[in-house]
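Step 1: inspect the first sequence and its tokens.
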Amino acid sequence: MQATAYTYDSGTRSGSVLLDDGTPLDFGPDAFDAGGLLLLRPGQRVRVETEDGTPAAPITLVTLQTL
């Protein structure tokens, strides 16, 4: 799923994203670390994956959106 980074706390390596429909989703340090990111700025386009592919499931991966 594509989303936009909304918040990010470098101390906890967790934050939140907004899906394209405006739905907010939180992610924890495991999802951030799985994507290999070092930093995330609010407004960056990201791709997120959840446990079962639905927005209701926990985020398991956050990566930068590339074309």
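Step 2: inspect the second sequence and its tokens, then contrast the two.
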Amino acid sequence: MITVITEFHPKDEHSAIELEDIFQKLTEETPKEAGYISYEVLSTQNIPITYYIIEKWASDRDLKNHADLVAEKGYAASAAGLLKNELNNIILRTLN
């Protein structure tokens, strides 16, 4: 199993609202993908407008297919324009 943790820092409140719209679409669409295990969008209370996505996939291939789909639909490019940080994915693999 592959777990990915991604941190998002929107540029401002308006960017945060637009980013939340993208997250909503992904939350609805992602469970339909092959290899999906879970997909959560979290926000923090102590750090203003900071979000995390924690997603779990059955395999590296499933994660790659998801990333390709996010790019094809334009979500990645749209989100990148709303952020003050570059995306940094932490990828964890379950040890068997």
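Step 3: confirm your contrast with the notes below.
The first strand starts at residue 2 and ends at 8. The radius of gyration is 13 Å.
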